[in-house]
């Protein structure tokens, strides 16, 4: 649930505004997001919100919190398409202004000069945000990896990163998600060859659980289905939304059309590949509903197979295990990343982090994303890469980057908000959501 703020010359720039999905400690809530109270009290000084890419943990809070911020939004075309859909559904399409920025685009907003640099990730159009000010340049990487074969969208703009490093980088704020993983994260191109082979081993219906936002994976599965004499179907509303947005922006145009679940039901089981939501065990998504016998159009039975082509998000271990055990009890073959090469991460492993530091050569490194162990490992790696000043920060820390030596100068109000039955609720630190441990937030809700 990312929310990042950069202040300079009395103005504030926001980078990303996302949500976190509920887990076992927040079962009453639909989504959770960062409390923007500090910056909403200063909203007259917000010059804009820049979105690095279209994952929900980076854009999902926009329709809920924009009425507190009322600032311009900047995004590349694919991200802009998805955010525009959210704003329409919230009744904010005519109020919230989205400025579409081309890939590798540059623009000025308030005292900040912005450049977007193309990276690769598990969704189209991920960007590093280069923030230039009179006191120095900050590179906010967002989520990224160095994929030599991204398949959907361009490769990393290595030349731009090298040139930015040569011109001088004050600070890099960088993804730590895979800071404990040795080597490199792997390429989608290599994974495609593996999935074509694995799907070809099964003789009955095959279902694949994956993240809806992984557009390259959707293309990979469409090609794998065709290579094995199957028709691919999308099962889950979020998959169809992502597919429509991708095609609007020129992606997924060279593959066979996906079938609907109803259309797939008319075909022999051996001719179908189902691409499904629910790989994290989310109760209302496709795979858990199929496993519970509650899906109106899709069934799996003995001899079918389910491939989990996604990583385990921390906190979802129990729900995923329950889902996989239930499928196995049904006689369905279950294939995971522990069994076969069925997934590559969208985040940089240690060798990729080293490469980024070699290109940028910042004077300051600030690790973000992940849990304590990931942040600590990233901080050690950055020091090994000869970054002079590495700051290990927590939520709410206010960091002075320049002038003078960078250091934490204090803490600002932070916290969490949740959406419960359509209402925005403030959560007390560490509280399990309930009406006794929350209070309503007196703000205009999106759509009012």
Structure commentary:
- The protein is α/β, with parallel strands linked by helices.
- Helices cover about 25% and strands about 25% of the residues.
- It folds into two domains: about 5-180 and about 345-440, 4-Layer Sandwich (Metallo-beta-lactamase, Chain A); about 190-335, Rossmann fold (3-Layer(aba) Sandwich).
- The longest helix is centred in the first third of the chain and has 13 residues, at about 75-90.
- It is globular.
Annotate the secondary structure layout:
Blueprint: E1 3-8, E2 11-17, E3 19-21, E4 31-34, H1 37-40, E5 46-50, H2 56-59, H3 62-69, E6 73-75, H4 77-89, E7 98-100, E8 106-109, E9 112-118, E10 127-133, E11 136-140, H5 158-167, E12 171-175, H6 188-199, E13 206-209, H7 215-227, E14 231-235, H8 237-248, H9 261-264, E15 272-276, H10 286-291, E16 305-308, H11 317-329, E17 333-335, H12 350-360, E18 364-368, H13 372-384, E19 389-390, E20 397-400, E21 407-411, E22 416-420, E23 423-427, E24 438-440
Parallel strand pairs: 2-5, 5-6, 6-7, 11-12, 12-18, 13-15, 13-16, 14-15, 16-17, 18-19
Antiparallel strand pairs: 1-2, 3-4, 4-22, 8-9, 9-10, 10-11, 20-21, 22-23, 23-24
